[in-house]
Every structure is written in C-alpha cells, then in structure tokens.
Design goal:
This protein is an alpha+beta fold. Among the domains are: 2-77, RNA polymerase II/Efflux pump adaptor protein, barrel-sandwich hybrid domain (OB fold (Dihydrolipoamide Acetyltransferase, E2P)); 218-420, 2-Layer Sandwich (Chloramphenicol Acetyltransferase), CATH 3.30.559.10. Helices cover 26% and strands 23% of the residues.
Length: 422
C-alpha cells in the first residue's frame, strides 16, 4: 500500500485546498499519473501516483484544506480495478412511532367550559414591585441618551441610581467594543444566475489587491511614448533576431530594459517600506503580469540588469507558458522588486494599475494607437502608447515618479540609449 501525501508547498505557504481528484476509488492508476490537483493561494499543484496499482481510498476529498505532509489517499500497489459496486437500495422509511395511548380504563379529564383546569399547587405571585422613581438629574440623562436604567447598578440609598451611577454607565457604554457585525446572509439567486465558490487563487488576488489599496498611499502618473523607433527597429531585425536566438523579438524586453535604466536613476521606485525603514534594492527582479484562466499571476524575471534582450524574451516566454499550463512554482512568484502589466494586449487604452505589494511601483502598458501629433511644427501620425506608473507616495515623491516615466519614455523613443547606457 502506498500513501499519497501532500507535497511541500513552498516558502510561506502553509496549506492547500484539494481542487479535484482525477480518479475514483477502485480505478486503476499508473505510476506518475496525475491523481489530484491542489490549489494554494499562489499556484496550482498536481500530485501523481507513486506506483502502479488501484486507488484504494481518498482521505481528503474535494474542498478539504490540507497541510504539507498530510495524507491525501492510498494506492494499492499492483492491484486490479474493482468492478463498480451495485447501487444500494434506498432504506425503507421506518414507521412513525404510535402516539402514546392513555392507560386502559383511564379516561382523560375534559376541561369544563368557562373554568380553568385544576392546579397542582399554589399559584405564584407574578406581580412585580414598581421601580423606584428616578431623580430628575438621572431622568434627564436617561431621556437624552437612551440609557436603560435597568442595566445600571444603583449605589444610592435603597439601591437608587445616582447621577454618578448614570454617568459611569454612559462611559462604560462608550468604551465598550462595538459588537461584530453579523455576516450578511447570501442573497437569493435568480433562476438564471449561478453561485460559484471563489478559488483560493482568486480569493488571494482579491485580498492582496484590497490590502494594497488600504496599506499604500497609492497614486498614478501618466505619460505617453512614441513607439515609432522601437517598431522600426523591431521590423528591421526581427527575422535575424529570431533566427539567431530562437525567440521572437517583442516589445516587452525593451520595456524591461527601459524600466531597469529608470529604476537605477530613481532608486526609490525599486524600494519598499519595512516597518519604519526603507529597503533600497540593488537588484532588478521584474514581475511580468500574465493572465490565465484562473486569474492574474506575476512571475518574476530575475537579475534583468545582467540580461540582454534575447535572454529577457526567453525568460518571459518560459514563465508565460508555465503560467498558462498551471506549472508555476512558488519560487517563480516571489521576490519581485518592480512589476509591469500590459493591458494593451486586451485593448486597454489607459488604466491605473494597482501595486503588487510590498513593491512601490508598477508600470502599466497600453494599446498602441495611431494619433495625430505635432512634431517640428508639423502634424504627423505616430503610433502612440499611454504609460501609467502607479507608485507608493510614502516612498516615492511626485518628482521621482515623473522622472521615472520620463526616463522610460526617453529610452523607448531613442533605443540607442539602452545600448550606450546613457
């Protein structure tokens, strides 16, 4: 018998949710065949069968939360698939118990009309003594504040409530913690609607984006870039580039190199707040946002300051494929110092991207559109793109943010700057 165990989930990841089993108990499995998919708050993981045999049992069903090392199920090594068990017949409903009958020969007494049933004991005195009258000063406090005198312990003569008692009760009420709001009941679902539980990844995306809004002094500044030079350079060398390096020359590698140059010029955009300190990072690990069927993920291209355009394109292509196939590792998503997101591939003309905490900056790329521009006193048509830099104003001043975008713009409009490092 071989155990199917929850694998290590990566740094800072303490649990996963069983997304689905691909086999049912009794079905034959092959060694290394995927048996169960797990979802963490960062990536999806696949767990394979350790041996050939039959899935004997499932210990953690769909939707169950498990920790690393937890038992998921068992595989019977070398067994053969079992025939499906016949469906169990529904159990017959047990007859309802008969109502208890009165003892034979004993008649139940009939109530006499207009008379109460006989009592088995003395009738208790339910009358309550009238509350003591409140002093005028106390009555005024009760009337103005809605204080309930029944909940105030009186210290005056015969237990009367004094003005001091009322004021002390008001202070206690003011300092009492507010009761937790009861969770709102799920609203009714229309017949043409469907309720689907959020995946762990979607829950994490929602939580992190809201935390970024709550914790950072987020602001966005804009600029625009003339893409003529980059497009001309790309068109001139794309075939030779692909033939030599085995990868297509895209726009993203130019943007990564332009951002690295700008981050080196404005280091606070590559920093983060840690308590009351600012941590300046002298490495440039750029997160590239990738849209997948399950949501947005941001894998990291590391040490981009040491890479050429071809190396960056290869790294982005490999991470993008892993993201779309659901094969990203935890390490692929950790440690970024700055992020880039390209809404232009979906047609976005302008947006305000949200920070990828704890980073202090994120660049938003957008669609390239031909627009009439004035160049040298003449109106010409140029391929233009809006750029957006969202930044944490606690770390980055407005001057630094604007300077960063200008540096990116200059590098893209004059790509020779990237080659000459000027």
């Amino acid at each position: 018998m071989a155990d199917i165990m929850t694998p290590a989930l990566g740094e800072s990841v303490t649990e996963a949710t069983v997304a689905r089993w691909t086999k049912k108990p009794g079905e034959a499995v092959k060694k290394d065949e995927i048996l169960v998919e797990l979802e963490t708050d960062k990536v999806s993981l696949e767990v394979a069968s350790p041996v050939d045999g039959v899935l004997e049992s499932i210990s953690a069903g769909d939707g169950v939360t498990v920790e690393p090392g937890a038992l998921l199920g068992k595989v019977s090594e070398g067994g053969s698939a079992a025939a499906p068990a016949p469906a169990a017949k529904p159990a017959e409903a047990a007859p309802a118990p008969a109502a208890a009958a009165a003892p034979a020969g004993e008649a139940q007494p009939e109530p006499v009309k207009g008379k109460a049933p006989p009592s088995s004991g003395p009738v208790p005195d339910t009358s309550a003594s009238a509350p003591a009258a409140l002093a005028p000063s106390v009555q005024r406090i009760v009337s103005e504040t809605g204080l309930d005198p029944a909940g105030v312990a009186g210290t005056g003569k015969d237990g009367r409530i004094t003005k001091g008692d009322a004021l002390a009760a008001l202070e206690t009420r003011a300092n009492a913690p507010a009761p937790a709001a009861a969770p709102a009941a799920p609203r009714a679902i229309h017949e043409r609607e469907e309720r689907v539980k959020m995946t762990r990844l979607r829950q994490t995306i929602a939580r992190r984006l809201k935390e970024a809004q709550n914790n950072a002094a987020m602001l966005t500044t804009f600029n625009e870039v003339d893409m003529s030079a980059i497009m001309a350079l790309r068109n001139s060398y794309k075939d030779q580039f692909e033939k030599k390096h085995g990868v297509k020359l895209g726009f993203m590698s130019f943007f990564v190199k332009a951002c690295v140059a700008a981050l080196q010029a404005v280091p606070e955009v590559n920093a983060e707040i840690d308590g009351t300190d600012i941590v300046y990072k002298n490495h440039y690990d750029i997160g590239i946002a990738v849209g997948t069927e399950k949501g947005l993920v941001v894998p990291v291209v590391r040490d981009t300051e040491t890479m050429g355009l071809a190396d960056i394109e290869k790294a982005i292509g490999a991470l993008g494929k892993k993201a779309r196939d659901g094969h990203l590792a935890i390490e692929d998503l950790q440690g970024g110092t700055f992020s880039i997101t390209n809404g232009g591939i979906y047609g976005s003309l302008m947006s305000t991207p949200i920070l990828n905490a704890p980073q202090s900056g994120i660049l938003g790329m957008h669609a390239i559109k031909d627009r009439a521009m004035v160049v040298g006193g003449q109106v010409v048509v140029r391929p233009m793109m809006y750029l957006a830099l969202s930044y944490d104003h606690r770390v980055v001043d407005g001057q630094g943010a604007v300077t960063f975008l200008v540096k990116v713009k200059e590098a893209l409009e004059d790509p020779q700057r990237l080659l000459l490092d000027v």
